[in-house]
Fold this protein.
Amino acid sequence: MAREYRFETWDGHVWEFNDPACPLSLRSEPTGIEGAQFAFDTQQNVNQPGDTVKARIDEPNFIGLDVKVGPVAKGDEAESLLREWRHSLGRGLQLGTFHCISDDGGDRFQVVRLANTMPPPNYYKMRHSGVLTDADSDKVKLRSDESWWRKDPAVRTFTQGELATARVHSESDEPVWPHYEITGPLQTPTFGIDGETVTLPTILSGQTWVIDTDPDFFQITDHTGADRTWDVGDRWYKQAPAGDVDVPIT
């Protein structure tokens, strides 16, 4: 599967590494595209052959880039390009977004920061040749604070009459907490996914309630932005399962 790579940096630059018009390109495929490293939390007992895996520990993800700077016109233009590129990397606290785009239109991304100090930029070489050769290539290490690559949320809209047979297609490698927006009029609506339901108070015409079911961020707000979390006597505990599956709306 062919891939393209785009880096949207903290200062507004968008480096389209596969675009011939972009003055930056990659000498090789980035590392870290296939996911973060992981380790295991294990337990070992006397006389036990091997050990017992208790959990998987997912590390932050690191993306390695071997960047070719140029060729561009020698002189000020070349030196300015190298300065812009280095400035766009930031210094660890500034965040950018690195995209991996497949030829089927899939766009997954990670929010990243510069992981370590870069070597000194070769402004002299850049000014007098307009390009950094293999020996001078910028090898960049980006760090995502998360393990996972993300995609934009899968958004599906259903009318009240469609809900009886409604399904949402999941393409995630990990279970996902649903996010709902419910627009009235609805008399004490009861809904959820995959057989689990929770009942809400009546939602009047023109009102929309927004619900984040993730237990770490669980919140319900109404059309005025008011917090209605405590107006609901229960919460949802089911996630959309991982895998290439259809999940029924209940």
In short: The first strand starts at residue 3 and ends at 8. Residues 76-88 form the longest helix (13 residues). The chain has two helices and 17 strands.
